[in-house]
Amino acid sequence: MIIVDLDIMMARRKMSLNELSERVGITLANLSILKNNKAKAVRFSTLNAICRALNCDVQDILRYEEDTE
């Protein structure tokens, strides 16, 4: 399973969800879905914009964890 650690990177950068939403150009609702691991997919362009805004790499916000099921 892919885990989204967006909240961790946002905290490290001291950036709010509102600020990230404005910088990336994605709605708060969609960003919240991604942050809370509810997203089924994410566009590369969105990942690129998030990484640019947070000055991080993809592996800083996404990680793989084996399913326990």
Short description:
The protein has 69 residues and is mostly helical. The chain contains four helices and two strands, in the order βααααβ. The chain has a two-stranded antiparallel ribbon with strand order 1-2.
Report the portion of residues in β strands.
5-15%
Instruction: Report helical residue fraction.
Output: 40-55%
Strand order of the largest sheet: 1-2
Enumerate the spans where pLDDT stays under 50 for 5 or more consecutive residues: none
Content-based structural category: mainly alpha
What is the number of strand segments?
Answer: 2
Tally of individual helices? 4
The chain-level mean pLDDT equals: 94
What's the end-to-end separation, in Å? 11 Å
Q: Which sheet architecture does the biggest sheet show?
A: 2 strands, antiparallel
Radius of gyration: 12 Å
What would you note in describing this structure?
The chain is mainly α and 69 residues long. Helices cover 49% and strands 9% of the residues. The chain has 4 helices and 2 strands; from the N terminus they run E-H-H-H-H-E. A two-stranded antiparallel sheet has the order 1-2. The model has no long low-confidence stretch (mean pLDDT 94).
